[in-house]
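Input chain follows. Return structure tokens only.
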Amino acid sequence: MPSEPEPYDCEVLVVGSGPSGAELARILAQAGVDVLLVDRLKQLGQAAFSSAALPLEALDRFGIPAQVVAARWSGWQLVGPGEQRRLWSAEQPLGAVLDFGALRHWLAGQAQVWGARLQLGITALGWHQDGAGVCTVVRNGSGGRRLLRSRWVVDASGECRALIGEAASPADPLVAGLGVEWLLQVDTEQQRLWGDQLSFFLGSDWVRQGYGWVFPMSHGQLKVGVCRLADPSKAQPALALQLRALIDRCGLGRAEVLDRHGGRIRSTVRRREQHRVGRLIGLGDAVSTANLLGGEGIRHALASARVLAPLLLQALAKPASSSSLDLYPSLLRRELGWRWILSGRLARRTWLGLSDARADARLERLLAGLQTRRAEDLSALLFDYRFERYGLKALPYLWGWS
């Protein structure tokens, strides 16, 4: 007699408990699916690298509670090139800065409330299809290996793409952004100076081929960071040195450093990489939902989970057919919008080219056109990529003519 097939450990294995993975686990578990959510971190508060700035509407859209909001902001400050400062302020809050570690905990907790199981310290090493299911090889914190069997596996492991791999084409390669961020404890006066706005530092004398930022946090804390696009054709100075220089120039050199962290984002500009291989599906940053222009990923990761969830539920309901998942790449592109490619082009042109005085002058001409805009308009430009609000003056820059 034929042997009985081994039982599944879960219906869906989700690798990665960041915003996309935890949100997907919650939605599936809420629909009654047996979900196992694993993450390589031993504590979800570790490696909490994310600028985590969101527009206010995103809090309502994704149901993000006040407990993970570290600060609210109502203005923008752009510093540079050089010491020039441009300020915009609104009468009402425009957005929030999240505590990214607290956000991870809350999202994973919501998934568990609905029945998802969470296992930390688990690293996914590889996978193979096994009949109508998937076998995923994982390693635990002590180095032991085992197989996890599931009907489907979702790679939500972020830019490392632990399972789905790096299948970008030469015509649309992965573009990498590297960042370093420190959490500082500051005095009351320093908190007042930086506390009600998002501040960005632009120009090659601040961060070559990138930008810096100071964001408010709670309890007299500030996030200060720098990031840049990786350029294999040029020697690039150490990011930690550029961050130290920015902190000193901002008058924050004596502040206590509470935490140091860093990370990398990688995305393609056109987002044409494979989103699915058999019963393996990529999600969030694993399929380039981190936007290169501002290094923003949280909103887009959460949105990708909401796009995938109903399609995966249909595939689970009809095991003999997975045709619903064929729509996933196109629906996700529609969700991100047609401006996505343009924002990627602008990111690559702006940051990679920002390496000398000539590039600074070009950036200065672009920023000059922002002077008459409202703070709300700047939010629409930077969060919604509404470049058409900028007018015809932006076209030569966007397409590389000036």
